[in-house]
Amino acid sequence: MKKKLVLVFVILFAFLCSACEIPREEKSTVYSYGLWPYYTFEEACEVADLIIVGTVKSVDKTYLVPAIQNPNPKSPSHYMALTDLTISVEKTLKGVEQKEIRYTQEGGETRDTIYVCDEIYELKEGERALLFLSEGDSIITWSVITNYGVIPVDQNGKITVSSTFFPGKSEDARSVQTQMDVDAYAEVISTYLATASAE
Amino acid sequence: MCWITVGVSWTTAVNSSDIRNYLGFRWETTPCIVMWNCDYETDQREAVRAAMSEWNGVADTDGSGLVASYLTNYVDSLNEVNWAYFKSSPIARTRFNIVDGYIVDATISLTLMVDWSVGATAGAYDIQSAVQHELGHVLGIAHCHESGGPCSLGSCPNNVMSPTFGTNQVRTTLTSYDITTYQSIY
Question: What is the architecture of the domain spanning B2-185?
Fold first, then answer.
């Protein structure tokens, strides 16, 4: 009986230790900066397997995968943090219509480390966004085609998008941020896709 | 596996609040020897060395800047240039371990999800251009603007530190943005 009691306490202690979160300010931080593929509006529409407008329904726990071959478990910079999100789809502009999709975004927070991925918008629960996605190697979760393929929608249904991310524009032009209705931009995409498929 | 050694001489202190294009951290010691483990084929390794040489050619503000790159028999678990499989879509990534505002370890990885080439090739990304961009981050340099964000000059895509890169391109000439930002840090 005594042995069982000790065992229960040991298990309970181990569980509590694994569950206790280090205060955020005491966590170490791994910063990550990258080089992303450049796509014109037309190329992005072609490369994306799925273009949707949706809302983040839930955010799963962050997990780590090796960022290089033969990583050293003691080196946090040898790993990348990924977080899976469930997104309720409200509008499908390209691809097979689905009620919900799973989307993997880079970055997140583990028990002892914050992984900051600076150039990409990190979606949170309840946020709405327009997304250019590709299957990658997985049919279970989707990933974004480039860092400007995540376009958050504000409370008023507006998005901020580069003036170069429209049909007929290229990166060589000076770009400014343009604010417009997400529905209007979705219409630009749909119109382009309809024209492109007719050609 | 092969190894590449980079020696960096830094002579000036940094006041990060004055520097707009600075990531916010740098290597601490002056000079600093950063040794790299590089797991590439010979021609690819030469492209990595060429990328280092481009940054080596930039003088510090006092003119004494020096980065020497050469092969050596060095290996540990720090400062890797390596292949990776990315679930997300960047073609290249640099990750840092930062201690007290200083870089102590950097890992550069290129994704195996795309095709790579040495030089401009249709459908492939040039290794030297990508590694040179990542080495800019390793030195503490930020992107000249974020993709999707405002780009005030039409020449921004020519900067090595521009955030996006296309296939069949070579972008290895350091521009005034790249050079002056480096010089503002070191």
Answer: 3-Layer(aba) Sandwich (3.40)
